[in-house]
Amino acid sequence: MGRPLTIWEHAQLQGHSRRDFLRFCAWLTAAAGIESTAVAQVVEALETRPRLPVVWFHFQECTCCSESFIRSSHPIVSDIILDKLSLDYTQTLQAAAGEQAEKALHDTMAQHPGEYLMLVEGSIPTGEGGVYCTIAGRTALDIVREAAVGAKAIVAWGSCASNGCIQAANPNPTGATPVHKIITDKPIIKVPGCPPIGEVMAGTIVHLLTFGTIPELDRVGRPKAFYSRRVHDTCYRRPNYDAGLFVESWDDENARKGYCLYKMGCRGPVTYNACAVTKWNEGVSFPIQSGHGCIGCSEENFWDNGPFYSRLTNLPGFPIESTADRVGLAVGALTAAGLAGHAALTFVRKRDVIRAHEVPAATTEE
Amino acid sequence: MANRIVVDPVTRIEGHLRIEVEVEDGRVVDAFSSGTMVRGFELILKGRDPRDAWAFTERACGVCTTVHALASVRAVENALGIVAPPNADLIRNLMFCAQYCRTTRCTSTTSTRWTG
Questions:
Q1: Are A97 and B59 inside 8 Å of each other by CB?
Q2: Cα R_g (chain B), whole angstroms
Q3: Chain B residues touching A195 at Cβ < 8 A
Q4: Looking at CA atoms only, how far is residue A132 from chain B in angstroms?
Q5: Does residue A224 contact residue A215 with C-beta atoms inside 8 Å?
Q6: What is the pTM for the complete model shown?
Q7: Are A179 and A156 in contact (CB under 8 A)?
Q8: Residue whose C-alpha is closest to residue B6's, from B34, B26, B27
């Protein structure tokens, strides 16, 4: 066969039935955050679109993104995504090593210019000319610049590639830099998290694969389907927050009752991610459900945002249970503050006039 | 004259590894290994709240995460003279065993080889 195989053709070769395939398409549609009416579109795309050539780079990272990805909960995700995407280069999974691995990378880049998807896991060190990460004798900086030239789009896996993550934490000894600060002329989709949720990663890939377009992104470049809601707003412990029921110490009665972890340093109020909705390990749990506050791993600079167990002090917004009375109290307090401010300003402005009219109390008593 | 064989990158591992071996008359006479990536965790950890240390340390590896976290917690406890209660030890042992089962299965069912 001269043309590259489509995903449906590959699935058939692997022995999957039509029913398996359709069920998978429906799952993909849901995972990608697409409306259920679009299932037919997904089916058609996977039947007709050739496999997307993909190169997956590992730079300054810990492989937790890859680990998360291969645990996407659907049983044929690893099968379909890993086999059916033409994953031509990935140091964690590929059989080839050394020169053969590098040849696979360069063949893909040469044969599919402008077509391949570049997945980047890890930040790129720029200190000392980039010596802090080398592969096959070349710096990560060189490699990323070379590979980006022919890439159709770039996906920044995890917080390392999206914002530098831990190695970029103060004092950032290696000059760790996220991809978007090095490559500025390609579409970049950021999928932050340490690691990102496997289903979120799969969903992002599925969107690219199915529609060949970039999913809708928020203002920092993350897919809106997964990063538009605060962990705090989707957290099942949120009613405790609104009712003022907090864990005050790790071993107190409130901790056993599952009260809100805000006072224990939970970063849910400043973190945008799907953890409280999609959860982890096939929907088993997520950190807050397991009794530990969110550390805010999908947000920039989360390592330097104060100790994890200190409560946040600058919390924006009203709680969901705010009543007109409470809002009224707040507005009343603001009004009082405004009046006091006005009085003070008036005094400053008119103090000369006021002084001129003052009776010197001390002298009259003498 | 020795023949030098270089394998870089070594794949199916976490991290970046380069192996060089010198072969003479069909026998390895010398070998060198280099980890070719560094992030400087020791420098980043300086001056931090010791309660946070485990979260930093476990980012050393995303495959065997838990053992790094546990080792870090123990180091902090040793430094501060804290004795963990028996229930904490039980939970830690369960965490360690769960991770051991998970990572072993993971490494043997993906293409990564289990060599333990």
A1: no
A2: 19
A3: 62
A4: 5
A5: yes
A6: 0.82
A7: yes
A8: B34
B40: which 2 tokens?
């400087």
Residues from chain B that touch A96, judged by Cβ atoms under 8 A, are 11
- How wide is the angle at C-alpha B43 spanned by C-alphas B8 and A136, nearest 5°? 10
Distance CA A223, CA A155 (A): 11
What separation, in Å, do the N-terminal and C-terminal C-alpha atoms of chain A show? 114
Of the candidates B10, B18, B55, which has its C-beta nearest A308's C-beta? B55
Q: What is the full per-residue pLDDT of chain B (116 aa) written as tens digits?
A: 679 999 999 988 888 999 999 999 999 999 999 999 999 999 999 999 999 999 999 999 998 899 999 999 999 999 999 999 999 999 999 999 998 888 776 665 544 433 32
Query: A354, exposed or middle or buried, with CB in 10 Å at 0-12, 13-18, 19+?
Result: exposed
Which residues are CB-neighbours of A5 under 8 A, at least 6 positions away? A13, A50, A51
B111–A295 CB contact, under 8 Å: no
Position A331, amino acid: V
Alpha-carbon span A120 to A98, nearest angstrom: 19
Q: Which residue of chain B comes nearest to A137, CA vs CA? A: B8
Indicate whether this complex's ipTM tops 0.90: no
